[in-house]
Amino acid sequence: MFSFSKQNDGNNGFNTNIFPNITVSPFNTVNNTFETTPMEITTTSSSTNSSNNKTSKSSKFCNFKWSPTGDQLLLFKPNIKGSKIKYQVNNTLSSTRKFLNDLYTHFESTQRIANSQVVPDDRLREISHLSKTYLSVILSTISQMVKACKTGSYIDNEDSYINCDPNDKELMDINRERVENILKSGSSNTLVVFCGSSDSIYPLLCSQISNKLKPKCILIARETNQPTQQKQDIINTIKRQTEIRILSKEEYSNRYNYIAENFGNQDSIESADVDDVYFKYIEEIEFLYLASTVWKVASLFYFNISSSMISPNQLLDCIDNERKELMDTYEGIMNKRIETSDPVCFDHMAKLLVCGCIDQVISILGLMSKAPRSASQITSTARKSPINLLVDILTQIPLKKKQSNFNPNETLLQWKKWSTDSKRQLTQYIDSGSSSKNQIDENLLPIIKILLGDQETIRYYCKNSFLQLVISNLLYVEYVTSTSALRSLFTQCYEIIQEPSEIEKIFLSFATKEINYPLKTISKYFPTWLSTHLSDLLYHHPYFMRKSPSEPSELTKVREHLLSEHGQSLASDPALLQVGCNYLKYVENGQFMIDEFISRQPIQYEKNALKMIDNWVTSQETKNSIYKMLSVKDFQRQRYASALSWLILTNDSSRITQLSNYLLENQLNSDFLNDLQSILEKNLQINTNRDNNNNNGSEASTFDISSNNELIFLIKYRELINLWKERSFKEYSSLLCQMFKDKIIPKNFWLRLLLDCIPLFESNKNVYFNYQDTLFLQTCLEEIIQSHLFDQYSQSISNQDIQILRVSLARNLAKSIMVSTSTNNLSLF
Question: Would strands 190-197 and 216-222 be described as parallel, antiparallel, or unpaired?
Answer without folding.
Answer: parallel
